[in-house]
């Protein structure tokens, strides 16, 4: 009885501070997000061993992340599904804003077949999450060893081409809540040229619901843009390809900002 009473009192306390304190709501929401992410990424590990390195192993964690979005008061809409590249692998470029971008990956994973991501090798050693990541096909690279990393990029390029895989990447390389894109790092574009497969730009609306110690409810539109071909390009074309992709994505972000501002007026 004492445990039940304690649970009821704790629940009431959390409910009260959730509604009266934006700071408490901020930390509680991120705690829920992290808890759900870790639990549903690791609990299915025994099932993942049935088909190791299969992208479908991430479908249950992706479902859990989409559910966590509903709990956190976030609604997502995906536009431009008709632009999804068919019958080919590709490198998917996504603007990077927050740890919540994991939910963006969870939204894209079921609608883009054979997805994977690239991560620094240190993540693999964060078990059990690192093991789960390996089991759903994450490609780990050593950022401190450029020659080895380039070798993995070349091998990954072949994988993209032969298995028609889709590598989801954040070309800015770091999170930014600014209204404009940060300069792109060239790794994604070297990979696209190595695979001779197109780029698939994806723009996520700015997280206006998120701020310093503020985590409100919000609606987010994810827009899939038409592909950018790379066939026939060489590594010498990477700077031009990087600039082209940046221009396309930055222009669309600006257009979306104007469109959203008109709707809120």
From TrEMBL:
It comes from the Eukaryota. Pfam families: Acyltransferase. Its EC number is 2.3.1.51. The chain crosses the membrane at residues 6-23, 30-49. CDD domains: LPLAT_AGPAT-like (cd07989). Coiled coil: none annotated. Keywords: Acyltransferase, Lipid biosynthesis, Lipid metabolism, Membrane, Phospholipid biosynthesis, Phospholipid metabolism, Transferase, Transmembrane, Transmembrane helix. Residues 90-207 form the Phospholipid/glycerol acyltransferase domain. GO terms for biological process: phosphatidic acid biosynthetic process. It catalyses: a 1-acyl-sn-glycero-3-phosphate + an acyl-CoA = a 1,2-diacyl-sn-glycero-3-phosphate + CoA. Pathway: Phospholipid metabolism; CDP-diacylglycerol biosynthesis; CDP-diacylglycerol from sn-glycerol 3-phosphate: step 2/3. It is an enzyme of class 2 (transferase). One of its GO terms (cellular component) is endoplasmic reticulum. GO terms for molecular function: 1-acylglycerol-3-phosphate O-acyltransferase activity. The HXXXXD motif is essential for acyltransferase activity and may constitute the binding site for the phosphate moiety of the glycerol-3-phosphate. Belongs to the 1-acyl-sn-glycerol-3-phosphate acyltransferase family. PANTHER family: 1-ACYL-SN-GLYCEROL-3-PHOSPHATE ACYLTRANSFERASE. This is 1-acyl-sn-glycerol-3-phosphate acyltransferase.
């Amino acid at each position: 009885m004492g445990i039940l009473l304690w649970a009821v009192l704790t629940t009431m306390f959390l409910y009260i501070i959730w509604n009266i304190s934006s700071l408490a709501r901020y930390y509680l929401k991120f705690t829920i997000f992290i808890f759900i992410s870790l639990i549903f990424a690791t609990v299915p590990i025994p099932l993942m061993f049935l088909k190791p390195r299969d992208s479908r192993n991430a479908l249950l964690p992706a479902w859990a992340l989409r559910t966590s979005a509903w709990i956190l008061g976030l609604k997502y809409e995906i536009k431009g599904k008709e632009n999804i590249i068919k019958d080919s692998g590709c490198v998917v470029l996504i603007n990077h804003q927050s740890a919540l971008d994991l939910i963006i990956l969870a939204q894209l994973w079921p609608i883009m077949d054979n997805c994977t991501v690239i991560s620094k090798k240190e993540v693999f050693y964060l078990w059990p999450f690192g093991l789960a990541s390996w089991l759903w096909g994450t490609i780990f690279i050593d950022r401190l060893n450029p020659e080895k990393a380039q070798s993995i990029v070349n091998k990954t390029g072949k994988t993209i081409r032969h298995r028609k895989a889709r590598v989801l990447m954040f070309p800015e390389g770091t999170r930014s809540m600014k209204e404009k894109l940060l300069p792109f790092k060239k790794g994604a574009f070297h990979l696209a040229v190595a695979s001779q497969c197109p780029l698939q730009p994806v723009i996520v609306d700015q997280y206006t619901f998120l701020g310093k110690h503020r985590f409100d409810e919000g609606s987010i539109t994810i827009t899939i843009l038409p592909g950018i071909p790379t066939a026939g390009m060489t590594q010498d074309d990477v700077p031009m390809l990087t600039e082209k992709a940046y221009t396309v994505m930055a222009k669309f972000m600006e257009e979306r900002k104007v469109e959203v501002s008109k709707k809120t007026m």
